[in-house]
Amino acid sequence: MTEEKNISQSEFPGQVHSTAGGGILVTKLDEVINWARANSLWPLVFGTSCCAIEMMSTAAAKYDWSRFGFEVARATPRQADVIIIAGTIVNKMAPVLKRLYDQMADPKYVVAMGACATSGGPFFYNTYSVVKGADHVIPVDVYIAGCPPRPEALLHALITLQEKIKSGATREQIKSDK
Amino acid sequence: MDIVPINDCMTNEELKIKVTEFLPSSTFGEGGEWTTFFVESLNWKSIAQQFRYSEDLDFDFLFCLTCVDWKTHFTMVYHLTSTKFHHTLVVKSKLDRNNPEIETVSDIWRTAEFHEREVYDLFGVKFLHHPDLRRLFMTDDWNGFPLRKDYEDPINMIKL
């Protein structure tokens, strides 16, 4: 009985990924899972500042982002996959952002939209209240430059995020590979 | 709502004349879109009441209350307009930088409650007899007044 088990362990086809519920067998399944996740990311409604207007414009009819799967923008973090930080993060908002990120369920992704969320933007110098970049608070996957970035730039960033998920290079996937 | 004939709205020159009738020793600022009027901070309360309750001036809408930090002194700026006559007046008052105090106008124009809290929070100007003078934007235990020109904050501010 043990000999059989030893032989079958070494000839096991594919890799075993350890996840929360135990190991699962992964062959091409990973690619299918990544494809499914990438094509149905639901964003969390999180716009603090001017970038929110560009995000609303991306969600509206002309530059529709639900073509790419971001169909439903949920107001609750419990049902959202990706948080698009559109706007300035001030010192008072930072713990709120952390709490929302903690409330999201795995796998979750973060997009920092605009100059303020990337690095503090125009408020980097001489300000007493702005956090100089959202990545001081939560880990970010994709950064977008612009003040505000055009809707096409936001769509490009979302497509980049999708490709990153499909290639298995986001923080989530690297973390759970260990 | 009663319809007011157009010629009841005063132009800038008429306002100047009218205000000088109230206070013969008043000084006016030059330029700008609206009549600008300088007032002593000690006389401000009584003048404000006259502006609010007089029949032909009737300034019942305070639409802006701010403070400017010139490095030697502060200037309080009040923007008043009349919803009935549609004329606008700007009132400026010079304050001493070491002890900036002025009477509150929150019992005349209710909107001044929040605006004066903001000015107290960011500049440190004390409004005498304000019903609830405390910080509005910064956290309650913040030290210092951020919008002053000599405000230093080594933790948050990166100097250019």
Describe the fold and architecture.
The complex is a heterodimer of chains A (about 180) and B (about 160). Chain A has about 180 residues and is an alpha/beta fold. Chain A has a single domain, classed as Rossmann fold, CATH 3.40.50. Chain A contains seven helices and six strands, in the order H-E-E-H-E-H-E-H-E-H-E-H-H. Chain A has a four-stranded parallel β-sheet. Residues about 1-5 of chain A have low confidence and may be disordered. Chain B has helices at about 10-20, 45-55, 110-125; strands at about 25-30, 35-40, 60-70, 75-80, 90-95, 100-105, 125-130. Chain B starts with 11 loop residues before the first helix and ends in a 32-residue tail after the last strand. Helices cover about 20% and strands about 25% of the residues of chain B. With about 160 residues, chain B is α/β, with parallel strands linked by helices.
> What is the 3D shape of chain B?
elongated
Approximately how much beta-strand content do the residues of chain A carry? Answer: 5-15%
Give the total of beta strands of chain A: 6
> What characterizes the major β-sheet of chain B?
5 strands, mixed
Contiguous runs where pLDDT drops below 50 for at least 5 residues of chain B: none
- The overall pLDDT of chain B, averaged over residues, is 86
Instruction: Using the CA coordinates, give the radius of gyration of chain B.
Output: 17 Å
CATH superfamily of the domain at 7-102 in chain B: NADH:ubiquinone oxidoreductase Nqo5 subunit
N/C terminus separation of chain B: 54 Å
Largest sheet of chain A: 4 strands, parallel
CATH architecture of chain A: 3-Layer(aba) Sandwich
User: What is the number of helices of chain B?
Assistant: 3
- CATH first level of the domain at 7-102 in chain B: which class? Alpha Beta
* Spatial strand sequence of the major β-sheet of chain B: 1-2-5-4-3
Q: What share of the residues of chain B lie within helices?
A: 10-25%
Helix content of chain A: 25-40%
